[in-house]
Amino acid sequence: MVGGITDGHQLVEAALELRPDVVVLDISMPGLNGLKAGSQVLQQLPNTRLVFLTMHDDPALAAEAFRIGGSGYVLKTAAPGELLQAIRAALGGGAYVSPGLAGSEGESHHRRVADVAPDDALSPREREVLRLLAQGQTMKEAAAALGITTRTVAFHKYRIMRTLSLRSSAELLHYAIKRRIG
Residue 147: which CATH number? Predict the structure, then answer.
């Protein structure tokens, strides 16, 4: 732990000062709720990852957390190792949602989030890749813009298509246009 805070305003100030790779925050915070505080952090520090640790097991709140750029959503009732899993996923450019969110039917967390709001099932890096591809950039150009390899862009593209149940690059482009991504 690098720093501890007591409200949303302090979280934003501390994040801007400390510039952490990952911020663990709650939805319910005094002063400024976690969604607004997290959004403000990402406006100033877009490479910072947000992992929400919360008591709220509402899929709509989880979807909103991912919509603002969150990388993880862990329930406080989850197994202790889940927070570490979420942090590792966030640092790796992925996403994590507690399997206990909205029931435990054994379905994948990506599928549950995708059912709530498909765009929110994408990690921030996947959304960046989707945005660049939607702008007409090649995978090589997107890789250069993001400072990653073409193979990594291809991996993200594959995961985006799988998450959104798209079968071709044309469907991916159509999806991006329909959602005004880019």
Answer: 1.10.10.10
> Residue 76 and residue 26: Cα distance in Å, rounded?
10
The three-class DSSP label of residue 153 is helix
The predicted-structure confidence for 15-26, as pLDDT tens digits, reads as follows 999 999 999 999
> Structurally, how many domains does the chain consist of?
2
Q: Show the tokens assigned to 136.
A: 């007409």
Of 51, 2, 47, 54, give the one whose Cα is nearest residue 28.
54
Q: What is the pTM of this model?
A: 0.57
- The reply to whether 68 falls in a domain is yes
pLDDT digits (tens, 9 = 90+) for 55-100: 888 777 888 888 889 999 999 998 888 999 999 989 988 888 888 7
What is the Cα–Cα distance from 137 to 157, expressed in whole angstroms? 13
How many other CB atoms are found less than 10 A from the CB of residue 1? 4
